[in-house]
Design a protein that fits this description.
The complex is a heterodimer of chains A (332) and B (323).
Chain A (H helix, E strand, L loop, with lengths): L11 H10 L4 H9 L1 H9 L5 H8 L7 H7 L2 E2 L4 H6 L4 E2 L3 E6 L5 H11 L12 E6 L6 H20 L7 H9 L2 H5 L2 E5 L8 H8 L3 E7 L11 H21 L3 E6 L1 E6 L2 E6 L2 H7 L2 E7 L7 E7 L6 E8 L2 E3 L9
Chain B lengths: L3 H4 L9 H10 L4 H4 L4 H8 L3 H19 L9 E2 L4 H6 L4 E2 L3 E6 L5 H11 L12 E6 L6 H14 L8 H6 L6 E5 L3 H18 L2 E7 L1 H6 L7 H22 L2 E6 L1 E5 L5 E5 L2 H5 L4 E7 L4 E7 L7 E6 L4 E3 L1
Parallel strand pairs in B: 3-7, 3-10, 4-5, 4-6, 6-7
Antiparallel strand pairs in B: 1-2, 8-9, 10-11, 11-12, 12-13
The chains are: A alpha/beta (332), B alpha/beta (323).
InterPro entries (chain B): DNA_recomb/repair_RecA-like, P-loop_NTPase, Rad51_C, RecA_ATP-bd, XRCC3-like_C
Subcellular location (chain B): Nucleus
Keywords (chain B): ATP-binding, DNA damage, DNA repair, Nucleotide-binding, Nucleus
């Protein structure tokens, strides 16, 4: 079975040209690419470069399930119960959605992840960098500094402890970590339009060690779009882009989403914005909420995941960052 | 059209000749024009290759994204509220960019708080001011001018003992002249004010603070039950535009909100800020004031910068002070 030329993502112009030259299927094209004489005749008529066409004709690479399992990476948070919920943390190569009412800890968890992604390899972290796409001005350097300081405090406790940390090089590395150096590994980008996410390609070229992209919030730029059909197109093209980036660069994408009220037959109900079709596109959906009448207690409900059914975790947000609830309730 | 973006126009030289020609032919020389489309739509429209379209989009997005952060001042600049305790509660003071909402029952000090910030924003930078003016949009009562005069005459004493700055500088500030006041009664007026008046005023005057006292008043009446979707859309538009202004110009935005009692699950009555989710989603920092028989409290409900805590305060002749 031959693949017809028109199925290639070529421009209309080129397809017409190729058709006139007598190319009907991709196999013709592959043959002529290997023939220098033929190649030059059709490349002259082309706007696509040779490497682009070769790229189009390449057979996609596949991996076996076993190979994939080895390559799996995740960003552990500092909260065990959330890690367990997500099978080790935020999964690299996937899109995770955090939704919740204002003040439910979405931005706090996002900022915590920006710190977590920097955990050095000797602590079984990724030792990578993060991009924080800030659309709603929720990026807080103050909070990040607090979280980093808490992490560094933990590191220095380990260093002074009895366990020797796997050799000289590692302890040197740990000692070299400073608040400023860790803060400089979180790249904040301000945006007000989802199409600006294309700029991430350039940012990633500049900082190749990025393993986490946070978009906080994903819905903010959409508030200016009136037409709901248009909104949908924008959402899906942005998700296409993020999904591609996540896979190509093998990094985790975290989106935050707002809640919205919808009138149903049972009265008003609250659920994540952007509708059903958005839910299909993200691999993990976490719904965060604050437990009423309990100061500083939050829940994370896993609404969608390939690994787990619906389950929930509890956490707290202290000045150190997102943490497990203390096992013993402190006396009030 | 925005004239400033002409300077930051797409640099055609980075593309190959065919792409250049296609862009010129299609008239796509402004990044904003290109980003109106999605990648797939644009590719069909100008008949470019996949790679070339991607390159055009990346270039356009870079320009457009760099226009957002044209505001180069440090983002973590804080504005004092004039009360040390409240500053501490907020993580140093009020953070610029984004909307700060302050809600509470009537008579618990919201307007006092706003008036005080309209003055502290004029203080010099070493005193954690911003050395600029304020725009005050009143929707409920008339602007309390006698009260602000009283506060103005007191603010000079308040910072008298501070030797960080030159006293002359403090005395030269014409507090009253730096506050622009606009009275508004309807949603349409508010829209007009925000979309027309504010951007112009920001060009001509050094305004760094916008106060809307209150955002709720205009939204309480005008709408019938069936018009609720329109109401939340209006609210969202206003909030979105305010947020955009604050990011572009590096402003502080303070909106006063009223409270509504809501029935919580366990039967008790609880006061929550009005206007619902469509507004709350766009609020960056939410503060709540409350009053008991003996004292007043201010509480952070949520904020990206700090945990939610509560401190008492009192209202004096000078304004808002800690106990």
């Amino acid at each position: 079975m031959n693949r017809p030329i028109w199925t290639l993502p070529l421009s209309k112009h080129t397809i017409n040209k190729l058709d006139k030259l007598g190319y009907k299927c991709c196999e013709d094209l592959i043959d002529s690419l290997d023939d220098p004489e033929k190649k030059s005749t059709f490349l002259r008529k082309h706007m696509e470069s040779e490497s682009e066409i070769r790229d189009m004709l390449k057979t996609p690479i596949y991996k076996t399930a076993a190979e994939l399992d080895i390559g799996r990476d995740s960003i552990a948070t500092f909260c065990k119960s959330i890690d367990e919920l997500l099978n080790g943390g935020i999964q690299v190569g996937q899109i995770t959605e955090l939704s919740g009412a204002p003040g439910s800890g979405k931005s706090q968890l996002s900022m915590q992840l920006c710190v977590s992604v920097q955990i050095p390899v000797c602590f079984e972290g990724l030792q990578a960098e993060a991009i924080y796409v800030d659309t709603n001005s929720n990026f807080s350097e103050l909070r990040l500094t607090e979280m980093i300081d808490a992490f560094l405090g933990h590191v220095s406790k380990v260093l002074s402890g009895p366990i020797d940390f796997k050799g000289e090089a590692n302890s040197e590395l740990l000692k070299s970590l400073t608040t400023a150096s860790m803060l400089s590994k979180i790249h904040r980008v301000q945006m007000n339009d989802l199409n600006q996410l294309y700029a991430l390609y350039t940012t990633l070229e500049r900082h190749p060690n990025v393993k986490l992209i946070v978009v906080d919030s994903f819905v903010m730029p959409l508030y200016q779009v009136e037409n709901s059909l248009r909104k949908n197109t924008l959402v899906h093209s942005a998700l296409d882009l993020l999904q591609t980036i996540a896979r190509e660069h093998d990094l985790a994408v975290v989106l935050t989403n707002d809640l919205t009220t919808a009138i149903t037959e049972n009265g008003a109900e609250v659920f994540p914005a952007l509708g059903e079709s958005f839910g299909h596109r993200v691999q993990y959906r976490l719904l965060l909420s604050k437990i009423p009448n309990q100061p500083n207690e939050y829940t994370a409900l896993l609404k969608k995941s390939v690994e787990h059914g619906r389950s929930a975790a509890r956490f707290t947000i202290s000045s150190n960052g997102v943490r497990d609830l203390p096992t013993e309730q402190p006396q009030l | 059209m925005n004239t400033s973006s002409v300077d930051n126009d797409l640099d055609l030289n980075i593309f190959d000749p065919y792409t250049q020609a296609a862009l010129i032919k299609g008239g796509f020389l402004l990044s904003t024009n290109i980003l109106k489309y999605t990648e797939a739509e644009f590719r069909k429209k100008v008949d470019l290759t996949v790679e070339a379209t991607r390159r055009v989009f990346i270039a356009a997005a870079n320009i457009s994204a760099s226009n957002v952060k044209c505001h180069q001042e440090p983002i973590n600049q804080v504005l004092t509220t004039g009360c040390k305790q409240i500053d501490k509660l907020l993580g140093g003071g009020l953070f610029k960019c984004g909307i700060t909402e302050i809600s509470g029952e009537s008579g618990c000090g919201k307007t006092q708080f706003c008036l005080q910030i309209a003055l502290t924003v004029q203080l010099p930078l070493p005193l954690k001011g911003a050395k600029s003016g304020a725009a005050y949009i009143c929707t409920e009562d008339r602007f309390p001018s006698s009260r602000i005069q009283q506060m103005i005459s007191n603010i000079r004493f308040k910072y008298k003992c501070d030797n960080k700055i030159d006293m002359n500088e403090l005395y030269q500030i014409d507090y009253g002249d730096n506050i622009l006041i606009s009275h508004i009664a309807t949603v349409e007026d508010l829209k007009k004010c925000i979309h027309e008046m504010l951007p112009k005023a920001l060009l001509h005057r050094p305004i760094k603070l916008i106060i809307i006292d209150s955002i709720t008043a205009v939204f309480r009446g005008e709408y019938t039950l069936s018009e609720l979707p329109r109401r939340s859309r209006d609210l969202r538009d206003i909030a979105f535009f305010l947020h955009k202004l604050s990011v572009e110009h590096g402003l502080w935005i303070i909106c006063v909100n009223q409270v509504t009692s809501s029935m919580s699950d366990n039967g008790g009555k609880k006061l929550v800020p009005s206007l619902g989710l469509s507004w709350a989603n766009l609020v960056t920092t939410r503060l709540m004031m409350s009053k008991t028989q003996s004292s007043r409290y201010i509480e952070v409900m949520f904020s990206p910068h700090t945990a939610s805590t509560k401190v008492p305060f009192k209202v004096t002749e000078q304004g808002i002070e800690s106990n």
